[in-house]
């Protein structure tokens, strides 16, 4: 797991984030959350959970966060992006850790979700910004 504090301070450790931070300061980012991340709070620590195969581990990160009584949030992909027609009919809000990091760091710099999502969500995920849809 990778956790981010104030976006620019990144640490890796063998210690559990549960031992390092107060529970009310931790926000576990998971694509299955009902809560939309609207802004980045510098007083919060954002946990980016990493899974290899999204088809086998559906809702695992949400379940883990709920078991630990943590706040959860998801990136606002469906609020700012639209599904695109593709040959595989594939649409996924599950991103790799580096993609989530790119989204968060770009948002922190620009305060623009469209710019941030464009930076981190590849078109292969089946989502695009509305102004890039070809008629």
Automatic annotation (TrEMBL):
<dbReference type="GO" id="GO:0005654">
    <property type="term" value="C:nucleoplasm"/>
</dbReference>
<keyword id="KW-0949">S-adenosyl-L-methionine</keyword>
<dbReference type="InterPro" id="IPR038459">
    <property type="entry name" value="MT_TRM10-typ_sf"/>
</dbReference>
<dbReference type="InterPro" id="IPR028564">
    <property type="entry name" value="MT_TRM10-typ"/>
</dbReference>
<feature type="domain" description="SAM-dependent MTase TRM10-type">
    <location>
        <begin position="1"/>
        <end position="128"/>
    </location>
</feature>
<dbReference type="GO" id="GO:0052905">
    <property type="term" value="F:tRNA (guanosine(9)-N1)-methyltransferase activity"/>
</dbReference>
<dbReference type="GO" id="GO:0002939">
    <property type="term" value="P:tRNA N1-guanine methylation"/>
</dbReference>
<protein>
    <recommendedName>
        <fullName>tRNA (guanine(9)-N(1))-methyltransferase</fullName>
        <ecNumber>2.1.1.221</ecNumber>
    </recommendedName>
</protein>
<dbReference type="GO" id="GO:0000049">
    <property type="term" value="F:tRNA binding"/>
</dbReference>
<dbReference type="InterPro" id="IPR007356">
    <property type="entry name" value="tRNA_m1G_MeTrfase_euk"/>
</dbReference>
<keyword id="KW-0489">Methyltransferase</keyword>
<keyword id="KW-0808">Transferase</keyword>
């Amino acid at each position: 797991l990778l956790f981010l504090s104030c976006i620019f301070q990144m640490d890796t450790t063998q210690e559990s984030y549960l031992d390092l931070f107060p529970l009310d300061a931790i926000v576990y980012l998971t694509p299955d959350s009902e809560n939309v991340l609207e802004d980045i709070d510098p007083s919060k620590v954002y946990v980016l959970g990493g899974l290899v195969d999204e088809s086998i581990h559906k809702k695992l990160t949400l379940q883990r966060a709920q078991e630990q009584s943590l706040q959860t949030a998801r990136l606002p992909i469906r609020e700012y992006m639209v599904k695109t027609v593709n040959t595989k009919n594939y649409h996924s809000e599950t991103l790799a850790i580096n993609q989530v990091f790119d989204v968060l760091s770009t948002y922190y710099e620009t305060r623009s979700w469209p710019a941030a999502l464009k930076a981190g969500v590849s078109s292969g995920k089946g989502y695009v910004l509305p102004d890039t849809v070809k008629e």
